[in-house]
Amino acid sequence: MAGTQNTRNKELVRHLLTEVWQRKNVDAVDELFSEDVLVGGTRTSTGDRTIRRDDLKEIFREWLEAFPDASVESHALLAEHDAVVSFATLHGTHEGAFRGVSPTHEPVEMRAFALYRIRDGRVVEYTAIGELLKLMEQLESERPLDA
């Protein structure tokens, strides 16, 4: 039974990565995340906690506007019970302003880990930790966390 749940949960995360990053379908967040999703961390540009789906959509749009050709290369998906951990690399070209940095038109990449907790076929908790400093260095910015 756990194997089936693990498989379903990994498929949900694969679907999420495909919809948001490959298909640029930010509205899929409404289908894939619970309305009261708990998001770990803060908005680096404001310091506000992100706790709603609309906040996630805004963040995904910010990234897709800055890196419109963004794609995610998934290296690993590990599932146990209600949790899925993803290790992936985001690839893209810096074509729009990002965190106060004007477009460089240069390719970038950033590795990230994400934890998804899933209940009833939706993500109820989401925390991502990525190499933002490495990304900002690629953008030749000396302001990695404030914008």
From TrEMBL:
Q: What is this protein called?
A: SnoaL-like polyketide cyclase
InterPro entries listed in its UniProt record:
Cyclase_SnoaL-like, NTF2-like_dom_sf
Pfam families on file: SnoaL
Q: Report the domain of life of the source organism.
A: Archaea
Kindly list the biological process annotations in GO that this record carries.
polyketide metabolic process
Coiled-coil region(s) at which residues?
none
| PANTHER family tied to this protein | ESTER CYCLASE, POLYKETIDE CYCLASE SNOAL-LIKE DOMAIN
Q: What is the lineage of its organism?
A: Archaea, Methanobacteriati, Methanobacteriota, Stenosarchaea group, Halobacteria
